[in-house]
Amino acid sequence: MTRRLLLFVAFLLLALGVLEAFVRANGEYLEVLSDKTSMRIKVFERSPSDLGLLFIGTSRFVDCIDEPLFSRNLEIRSGKTIRALNGATAGIGVKGIIRFAEAVSQRGGLRVVVLEASVPSLGKAAVSSETDTLKEDIAAPGQDESGYGPRIETALQGWLADRLGIVAQRKSLRPASAINLFALYSGSVMDTTVWKRKGVLRELFSSSEPGVDEQQFSRIIPVVTSSGDAGIEVTEGVDLSRDETLRNMEQLAEILAGSDTQVIWVAPPVTAEVAQQSESGETRAAAFRYMAYRYGTPVFDYSQAAIPDDCFRDTSHLNKKGRILFSKLLARDLADHF
Amino acid sequence: MLFNSVTFLLLHFFCVALYWASPALRVRQIILLISSLVFYGWLYWPALFLLGAAIVVNYGFSLWIDSTERKRLVTAFAVAVNLCNLGWFKYSAFLGEILVELFDRFGISIENPPSSVWLPLGISFFTFQVIGYLVDVSRGEIRAERNFFVFSVFKCFYAQLVAGPIVRANELIPQLKELRKFRADNFQLGLYLLIAGLAMKICLADTLSQFVEHGFSDPAKLEVATAWLTLYAFAAQILSDFWGYSTVAIGLGLMYGITLPLNFNLPYLATSIREFWHRWHITLSAWLRDYLYIPLGGNRTGRYRNLFLTMVLGGIWHGASWNFVIWGACHGVWLVLERAVPDFFPKGRFFTMLKWLLVVNGVCLLWVFFRAPNIEVALQYFTALLAPPYTMIDSPPDDLLFILIGFLAFTAILGKSLTDRRFLEWGLVRQVSLTFFLLVAIIAYADARLDFIYFVF
User: Fold this and answer.
1) Is the reported ipTM for this assembly greater than 0.85?
2) Is the pLDDT of residue B177 over 80?
3) Residue B262 reports pLDDT greater than 70
4) Is A178 on the interface with B (CB under 8 A)?
5) Residue A223 vs residues A213, B208, B232, B318: alpha-carbon distances, Å
């Protein structure tokens, strides 16, 4: 029996050793699998060289854009075939968007990048994918880090993570990583967790294809701010010196300025009620004018556009009907840039 | 110390190595005693004073009971002292609230009576274990243990001190007094059970806990389908948590060559509530039967009353709140009804399946009282389970379905192997591959370490 025990332990250690070697050899990919933003960046990097348009934003953008529909309508409007990729990520914060922008700048060859201009996408912290509310880091429950016991435990875990790839990359060993791996290699599914989001499953099972009222469609016009509209006194009367959103927009614009990529800002729609409650309208408009003037990046603001309430799943996320409507609207409004 | 921590595992393996390296029985007993005290006092060392006092006092009581002619009187006194200790730490606040409310009914306003602000880990378990021991000595079923080290290890063996299984003296003490040789098969089985138990706790129970926490924090917001899913999630969580703990405990014991009693045996396969209690927390059920139900009169007089009272007291044992009283009472009523009303289901596979569905869903529904923080929330939860609109799942929580499927797969594939020694009969490839899979799962999900649910009981 002792021989059997020794063999059991030896084979177990051998299997763990093989896994450790595999993890170390594929660390770059495994790291990507366990991080949503990294994975989308990797999918973007692996995308075909003829990719012409990339969307970067939060869950609002995930819900706003139907890529094939957008591309078809853009082709109808502009007469050009443009391959588009929606790289929006539910729950991404400004840090993630900056990482994405850096990847765009390094890769080059992209014609247009459409960035989401909203508080969740440009705020300082990561956001909840459902509510777009800023969330604080939450400590692990029941852990009092001040005692010697927890300190020893934390130190031991850190020591193991520093030395063992399987501990450091443990999240990539979860079953969900297999789905992410599929997404990474197929490049066709950007957000493998999208089905978990509120209302998405219901939409998946609803067979009806919502139509778009053409008259209504023509009445929905965004507020467009382009460099030609803005003068030197774009921010007159508005103090933008402490506006963090603007600072983040500037940082993104500067990152992308080095590449040949045209940057377009799009403020996604919200319900009429939320639009009326917004108190920062003037500041935001000034920030958009400043960006258009300073960096030549046009802004399409749909937050005040008259998109009907039945197009929304909640106050700031579009439903299936809204997505179809908005994809067509965006193709119509961006067609001139291609 | 939490079983699901790196520190614990390292120290445990160190202690096991030291134990088997020691040729003398006394040294082994001291190693077990010291390691048990270190593990118990790791997070809050003042708790050792309470445990130490409980060991010394009960050691004295057992010798007294053994030597006196008035065994029943002394036993009653010793049991009362232990229950008072348990009552002070666990029930004083609850009893104080009842007292204040009672006086308030008569228009008399009183201050909250003093109560304990600290609940020692595992106090219900080690109190019940020692009460069982004292009663056994009193009944003459065993002699009081004279060796203080052996008695102390019986009282505080770290594998089962905090959350069971509740071990009988005649099961554990003879094993502690025997100088046994190292058996590789026991060690291998122990290692497997340790890994399988941790996998249940870390991969299933801890992952499910976040969904359950979310669901029970505000049941009014739950849709019907999500409420049901959360309910099943809790049923899976509490089983994975407690069965996981018990499996780890049995595994730890086996590494020392000590066999601890089985505490779970696929309880959700029961087709009657009686069978459920023969499969769920087996050592507590047996304890309640031997030291409560039978002394109350058992089947001889007032059978149904005894059964009901036993279950109500069993409910209160779990926690000091009306929820647990109702939970225990519901199980009591169900057990009484099952015995009083003859089984009217015809024989056959279909009706067995039907009975199983009724039992599983009934047990799950009663878990609402167990999990909800108070009766108000429990009632809100029942409303969420039944109230319209009957929409489909609008927002399935992250991974919940996957984890529930994982729970079913784990139970179906490995469940039986946690209840007997069949693991040792498997081929080496099967042993290694399954253990490896569990080990990788533990590493993959080892993020936040949560306490075991039964630590607070």
Assistant:
1) no
2) yes
3) yes
4) no
5) 21, 46, 50, 62
